[in-house]
Design brief:
Blueprint (H helix, E strand, L loop, with lengths): L3 H11 L5 E4 L6 H14 L6 E6 L5 H14 L3 E7 L2 H11 L3 E4 L8 E8 L3 E2 L6 H14 L10 E3 L3 H11 L8 E6 L5 H8 L11 E6 L21 H10 L3 E5 L6 E4 L5 E2 L1 H19 L6 E5 L4 H9 L3 E5 L3 H11 L3 E3 L5 E3 L5 E2 L1 H12 L6 H6 L5 E2 L3 E4 L3 H12 L3 E4 L4 E5 L8 E7 L5 E8 L2 H15 L2
Parallel strand pairs: 2-3, 2-4, 3-7, 8-9, 8-10, 13-14, 13-15
Antiparallel strand pairs: 1-5, 4-5, 5-6, 10-11, 11-12, 15-16, 16-17, 18-23, 19-23, 20-21, 21-22, 22-23
Amino acid sequence: MASDSAQNARLASVVGAYDVRGVVGEGLTEEIVEALAAAFVDEVDGAGSSVVVGHDMRDSSPGFAEAFSRGATARGADVISIGLCSTDESYFASGSLGAPAAMFTASHNPARYNGIKFSRAGAEAMSKATGLAAIRDRAAEYLASGIPTASATGSVETRDVLADYATYLRTLVPLDAIRPLTIVVDAGNGMGGLTVPAVLETAAGLPSLPLTIIPLYFELDGTFPNHEANPLEPKNLVDLQKAVVEHGADLGLAFDGDADRCFVVDERGEAVTPSAIAAIVAVREIARARRDDPQADITVLHNLITSRIVQETIEAAGATAVRTKVGHSLIKDEMRRTGAVFGGEHSAHYYFRDFWSADNGMLAAMHVLAEFGAQGAPLSEFASAYSPYFASGEINSTVEDVPAAFARIVEAFAGRAEFDELDGLTVTGHAGLDDDFWWFSVRPSNTEPLLRLNAEASSRAQMEAIRDEVLSLIRA
């Protein structure tokens, strides 16, 4: 057994701002997981109640899930083990069962990593500020002195919720009446290989849809033998893009490792930006809320580095656009606080009020299929209305002195821009230049000495000029 100080150092290294994540056997061990489980049950007052535990396809995940069950039952919780699942499927279980949940996944990270995403009952997010720090501290005590056994230890029940999950998503977004579509889906050997056949095909016993699915890498394999399950990296979309063109498909979908994010490519193999997807889904969710209550005040969230088109689309549809910081736990909290019907991020996280304000990549994909499949144009043409501007993408720079870099930027742009500090520094060209607008955001990383730049403008030349000027200031 490692010393108390070594265990505490490991524990501190794996508990992040929004979840637990670390290298298996180094930062994250079964002993640490067991202590975290016991502390989680204490934090959510789970003794005598149910706690959901699910896991992805990584080699270490089943063992970690069993260790979690040991720690949770020792503190009196009854574990509902849902086994292999996507992260949004675990949110479904937490929401539909009204139980706290722990999902074992490291999302898009390489095979040597694993982690835990915690939820309170009803899929409510948990961050350091809302319980994760307390869990860490209590787990440290349990690692030092042992986990005390509750007067009544809990039980473990196995339950399959995949069919219920698939049925619920189909009630939210019916697809039976759209035109026939051929779709290439790259699951990246992640959990999309389980959920796509259940939701979009007939593996869960549901009726067939007018969809022909061409599968890529549906075999569940936590070693990721084909490519990393991180569609945010362009290199991991290459196989999908090639297959869409070769098969003459209408579009392609790519899921990350735990299948809570979905990326879209058009019939030419060109990526459709997550901002465009957010705008498309926002229109649909606003329209649905308006049908339910024509007089309702409707709110939609977007983080501060989504394209300007997202805010414009939300407002044109008659809803209030609320700009947020970046970060899934923050946005989930803001979804609940504002009662927003939908929220979209640049990273392809999409949040739905009707899904307990949690994120769900499959649900976003279904909205795109429904809207696209209700008309006849190719996706490249259909999506072009939602991508009128030019973006730099996220560019990272190593910066040791962030305040000095910010000071250089403020000095350089003083008098020709407006500044705000909602999340890092956002700089917007003075109002009234709508025919040639620009803005950029510079945010420090939470975990590395990096500054992240995102820039957008109404012309490519303007975007490139702003991008290059800001990079020269950051890297001076």
